[in-house]
Amino acid sequence: MENLDLELEGWYISKEEELTAETELINESLAKLGTTFLAIKYLPSDLRALGWDEEVAVHEEWLSDDIWNVTDALSEHKLVKQPRELTDRRVIEFMENVKAERLDRELRAAIKKRSEVLSEILKNYASSLPLHFVLPPLADIASVASFRAVIEDTPVEEDVLEAHFDEPMLSFPEIVDTWRDDKNAELVEMMRACDEIETEVSSSSLRLATSLFRSSRCAFAMAYQVLVHTCFTAILGWEEPGPYYDNIGCRPWNSGEIVRVSFDNQAYIRARLVLRDGGFGHRHTHL
Prior knowledge:
Layout: H1 2-32, H2 34-38, H3 44-49, H4 53-58, H5 67-75, H6 88-126, H7 138-143, H8 145-153, H9 166-170, H10 172-192, E1 213-215, H11 243-248, E2 261-263, H12 265-277
Antiparallel strand pairs: 1-2
């Protein structure tokens, strides 16, 4: 019996020590997150008193008179999860971050929505053109200062309609011509770097049946339609084109760091042989 009493006493002592250790761990955790509980005192009325009326109104779905909503919102922030008292200064710093993040989200959403409006305008414009007429991709047009100003600089709270792009569209034909001339020049330079081409290369050479390009991503040769191939405007998962193009959903033509266009030397040689065997002159046969 005496042995049993000793065993029970030892068991109680062991459990007491375990409970003490757990209590100390809990108290330590509470100390580190102490300011989370101090956040309870900051109700919307307090935030308004600190000059955050507008932000409280914008976030009224979670900054309500329900103090637990306020607590949850504040407790998520790194400034709260520190073993220091939650002062007015720290609350103001937190609210400044909240506002900056909100404005960034709103701008991103606005850019996406406005680029969709521009995309519809370009589709309607393209429908009136010949079938194979080459227009700049969406991101290239959105890069032009007059179009970018509408997309990025119009106040976020203002809905952008097709009419907002009326003035930039007045110079659209000239923008298209300039873009196409610039891209043609890039393609011509790629062709000139090919040692197999023995004749002088100019923009008219781009329409030849032997003028074939390739993507570092695709495995097939492409003719002049390379200017509208989606490989060269797509945003790959590991690339970061910047928030503007990220929200538009594409990048300017051939501006990627990984997928680039190049002249396909081997395809040029094969096409030249096919044309020769078929009795066509490779220097004059156009697609």
